[in-house]
Amino acid sequence: MNEYSTNENMEHLPKLIYDLALILVLAGAVTLIFKRLKQPLVLGYVVAGFLAGPHMPYTPTVSDTGSIETWASIGVIFLMFTMGIEFSFKKILKMGSGPVIAAITIIFSMSMLGSLAGHAFGWSRMDSLFLGGMLAMSSTTIIYKAVDDLGLRGQRFSSQVLSVLVLEDILGILLMVILSTIAVSKEFEGITVIDSLLKLLFYLALLFLVGVFVVPLLLRKYRKWIGKETLLVVSVGMCFAMVVLAVKLGYSAAFGAFMMGSIFAETVEADAIERLVDPVKNLFGAVFFVSVGMLVDPNVLAQYWLPILVIIVTILLGQAIFGTLGFILSGQTLKVAMQCGFSMAQIGEFAFIIASLGLSLGVTGSFLYPIVVAVSVITTFLTPYMIRSAPAAYEYVSARLPQDITRLLDKQTGATAGAATENNWKHLLTALAKQVLSYSTLCIAVTAISLSFLLPFFRHTLTHWIGNAVCGIITILLLSPFLRAIVMRKNHSEEYKALWRVRHNRPLLALTVIARYLLASFITYYIINYLSPYSSILHFGIAILLVALMIYSRKVKKYSILLEHTFMENLRSRDMQAETLGHIKPLYADHLLSREIHLSILEVPENTAWAGKTLKELDFSRRYGIMVSSILRGGIRHNIPTADMPIYPGDKLEIIASDEQLKQFAGTMAKAVESIDLHPEQHVTQLKYIIIGKESPLCGKTIRESNIRETYRCMIVGFEEGRKSLGLPTASRRFKENDIVWVVGEKEPLGRLLKDNERNE
Q1: Beta strand ranges found along 48-129 (DSSP E)
Q2: Which of 164, 227, 691, 759 registers the highest number of CB atoms within 10 A of its CB?
């Protein structure tokens, strides 16, 4: 049996090795050509796949497509995992409403256009829906490269586009889930889609909250035992575990990988994980894109040349029109909006992932994949031309629009729609909404797990009603920190206190507390009512009483605050590390801007004349009017340094100053450098020996008494005690007549020491 299995494996192994060798060698060769042509590597992989595919008779062909498809699926997982690591929920919250409006407008409009195009050609409903999903997502990789190649990274429109691309990643995941739900249910009913979307949002929030709470704690606890190899194994293992969980919940593997990546994105180890996983991602990602190219059939392309042409025109015109509209609605000027819209006129890697999803579910035709690949290749080549044409298109449109409309559009700025209004009500209500939703999600999850798993166990172990009682008590105890937080969080915040001082705000503030109290009571009531046979009114009264006890319980308060503190610490751990290392400014830096001073980080030059001097000696405050808030040295932050703290080359100084003060200080720092040594050979240390004579000034003295180090800047390294023996000196060792002493020093001071010793002889 074992011999048979071995032979079978040996027969199968060469096929896999041959196929991998073929696609990787082809991919390497083609991508070298594409790199020389300054084209995205993704296109090179697709072309390599076409050359290795079954539809190319002039080159060697992959024999075992099943194994390649498995590797390609792993490639999708790694691609989505790294995409999740690069993604951050905090970034979305900081963006404001502008990029969100633009992203939703573009995705909805392009999805509709794609679906309509599919219906116009008589394709099936599923083919049309999936085509709409493919056309909705622009290529992050291609846009990044095009903007860099054209030298436009610093322009205003590029930052706006990149913000929208970040949002498209998460919205793309939602779109994939919706398409999967429709594909599985074979129905396109609003209720079904909404139900699936709500479930997705619930699992998204739950997995993120639990993940951010648990994963950083585990990594922090075992950090000293986790090396690079272990970190890679742990992170990839947790990624695949989340993939399995996502599939069990009825979602795609891509969703699980992205979710785990977004959890790791909030940890200190995120950058290290990204570096470790990147080679693995590149390998399997290459296999995935090669597998995409293998599906390209020239006969299909020739047959569907008209749909390909129409879809290309749909993308170019659709993004130019609706992309521009989306950015205008987000608050951008007409010129910036057109630059943004024109730059997003292509599809890329996400379209391939959606296409592969449709094939794996068996709901899309085999013709759709080659069409999408052809469209992606052509629109990729056209992207630089679309970006370059945007200014000319703006001049053309603005010249033909009524002046009133042009002036109205050009008066808009990204700041008007995207910036948050600084008022207490907005801050308070936003914070309350986030916290109520977060804690409610946790309460629902704990309740569902308890009633689904704990309750049957206790009923089986104990009697029915005793099991109900025990399960109910445990569940409410587990929920108590969350329920208290729902009611009491933000009631003592600065915003709440400021609003309470104004009399007419008090009824509304009281209403927010009452509403949260009733929500906590309802959750408690649901558990009691589910487990108890008595009256609903009695149950609700008990629930109200229990919530009141939770509020006044010191232990519940302690655990509630501890849980929130731990969660926020985990959520901000990456930012805190970046702040500690000086990669980002401290949080308080933004608050200084309104007071005409700001915080900047300056690095002390390598050959500074300030090296070794203390802050007291340098007296920056009196001389330049600046304050040193922190000194970053070798990955260690010294906050609020004392006057006796020295500075050294390479130190990063966090300076609080006005623009003028900072300019003056930076100029002085740049000038405070020591001149370059033109004779470095004079500072080379040498080893010499001296013989102590009877008349030598050193004879009879100890090494400490001789002051050789201070007087001559030389150092005694040993006394010769035999042919090949050198005794280590001590400070109390005395020089005796005829001692042979070995000395180390620079040429000039060492010469003086030898001359002084010989003179006395």
Answers
A1: none
A2: 164
The number of beta carbons lying within 10 Å of the beta carbon of residue 535 is 10
Compute how many other C-beta atoms are within 10 angstroms of the C-beta atom of residue 732.
Answer: 9
Which pLDDT score is estimated for 616? 83
- The verdict on 60 and 72 lying in the same domain is no
Q: Burial, 629: exposed, middle or buried (Cβ in 10 Å; 0-12, 13-18, 19+)?
A: middle
Angle between helices 190-221 and 156-185 (to 10 degrees): 120
Q: What angle do CA 227, 231, 234 make, to 5 degrees?
A: 140
* Domain co-membership, 549 together with 608: no
Half-sphere exposure of 44 (CA within 13 A, CB side): 20
* Residue bearing the bigger pLDDT, 223 or 29: 29
Helix (H/G/I), strand (E/B), else coil: 714? coil
Interhelix angle 424-449/190-221, rounded to 10 degrees, is 90
Tokens 């969703």 belong to residue? 255
Where residue 545 falls among pLDDT bands split at 50, 70, 90?
very high
For the chain, how are helix, strand and coil distributed in percent, rounded to 5? 70, 5, 20
Please indicate, yes or no, if residue 279 is contained in any of the structural domains: yes
Q: Which of 40-49, 198-207, 418-427, 524-533 has the highest mean pLDDT?
A: 524-533
Mean pLDDT of all residues in 420-430: 66
Q: In which domain, by residue range, is 21 found? A: 2-65
Q: Which of 378, 395, 412 is the last residue of a domain?
A: 395
Q: Hey, CA dihedral for 474, 475, 480, 481, is it positive or negative? A: positive
Q: Is residue 447 part of a domain?
A: yes
Helix (DSSP H) and strand (DSSP E) numbers for the chain = 35, 8
Bridge-based pairing state of the strands 627-633 and 652-657: antiparallel
Calculate mean pLDDT across residues 93-102.
72
157 plus 39 within the same structural domain: no
Judge if 158 and 268 occupy the same domain. Answer: yes
**CB-side exposure of 239: number of CA atoms within 13 Å?**
29
For 404, residues 6+ apart whose C-beta sits below 8 A from its C-beta are: none
Could you tell me the CATH number of the domain that includes residue 618?
A: 3.30.70.1450
Res. 6: pLDDT tops 60: no
Domain boundary among 636, 671, 706: 671
pLDDT at residue 722, as a whole number: 60
The tens digit of pLDDT for each residue in 630-689 reads 888 876 777 888 888 888 888 888 887 776 777 778 777 877 776 555 566 667 788 888
What residues form DSSP beta bridges with 630? Answer: 639, 654
From 113-122, 149-158, 641-650, 724-733, the region with the lowest mean pLDDT: 149-158
pTM over 0.85: no
Same domain, 43 and 136: no
Q: Are residues 79 and 142 in the same domain?
A: yes
Strands across the sheet with 726-727, in order? 685-691, 740-746, 715-720, 726-727
Q: How far is CA 437 from CA 198, 201, 309, in A?
A: 13, 11, 46
Q: Who contacts 206 (Cβ-Cβ below 8 Å, separation ≥6)?
A: 441, 442, 445
Give CA angle at 404 (399, 405), nearest 5°.
70
pLDDT in tens, 602-629: 788 877 888 888 888 888 877 877 888 8
373 within 8 A of 45, measured Cβ to Cβ? no
Share above pLDDT 90 across residues of the chain, in percent, rounded to a whole number: 1
Same domain for 45 and 94, yes or no, is no
Indicate the length of the chain as a whole number.
761
On the 0-12 / 13-18 / 19+ scale of CB atoms within 10 A, 755 is exposed
Indicate the number of domains in the chain.
Answer: 5
331: closest CA among 419, 416, 405? 416
**Taking residues 497-509, what's their average pLDDT?**
82
Where is pLDDT greater, at 253 or 95?
Answer: 253
267 secondary structure, DSSP code: S
Is residue 390 within 8 Å of residue 323, measured between CB atoms? no
Lowest mean per-residue pLDDT among 188-192, 236-240, 500-504: 188-192
